[in-house]
Amino acid sequence: MQFHPEERLALFIDGSNLYAAARALGFDIDYRRLLKMFQAKGRFVRALYYTALIEDQEYSPIRPLVDWLDYNGYTMVTKPTKEFTDSSGRRKIKGNMDIELAVGVMELMDTLDHAVIFSGDGDFRSLIEAVQRKGLRVSVVSTMQSSPPMIADELRRQADCFMELADIRPEIERQGSTRNPVLPEDLPMETV
To answer: Which residues pair with 79 in a beta bridge?
Structure first.
């Protein structure tokens, strides 16, 4: 991935998508190392982390991560999940952050030269195309090395640069991470 030291750079992290990609590759991310890696690549503006939170639970397993990120250089963008029942009568949780991430990129676009989006979601293709027309360079970080690949082909093709998550693993992996790769059916269901 080509970075220029004078570039104004920001990270936009789709939290659930990045978690699923790293899990499929069998490792945990050290968010301190991830931040330092990108802070060294240009004039770092901001790192935004997008995630939905289940508010009605007494304890949320993601709350410690959200709190840590919030105090350690990340701007947290959260919203409460919504519970609904599908047509089969099954309870489902809705917590998609695509719109919030897209709005964040659009809001910061005039203050940036390079946006790095951590997601493989093909829904972001139109966003990338729109901000590229305004002169913003966009890199996408996800993985093709999982089975199935976590990156949508149309997103990878639209990005100025695709960064394979497995390639930067040595720089961002949490030390002592012993997670084993999982099969696709073990991955959490995609939020609606």
So the answer is: 52
DSSP string, the chain: ----TT-EEEEEEEHHHHHHHHHHHT--B-HHHHHHHHHTTSEEEEEEEEEEE-TTSS--TTHHHHHHHHHTT-EEEEEE-EEEE-TTS-EEEE---HHHHHHHHHHHGGG-SEEEEE---GGGHHHHHHHHHTT-EEEEEE-SSSSS-SS-HHHHHHSSEEEEHHHHHHHHBPTT--PPP--GGGSPPPP-
**Are the beta carbons of 28 and 177 closer than 8 angstroms?**
yes
Residue 166, strand partner residues: none
Tokens, residue 60: 């949320």
Is pLDDT above 80 for 65?
yes
Q: What is the pLDDT of residues 33-43, one digit of tens each?
A: 999 999 999 99
pLDDT at 183 over 90: no
Q: How high is the mean pLDDT of the chain?
A: 88
Q: Which amino acid is at 93?
A: I
Mean pLDDT of 24-51: 96
| Statement: residue 32 has pLDDT above 80 | yes
Homologous superfamily (CATH) of 8-83+95-175 is 5'-nuclease (3.40.50.1010)
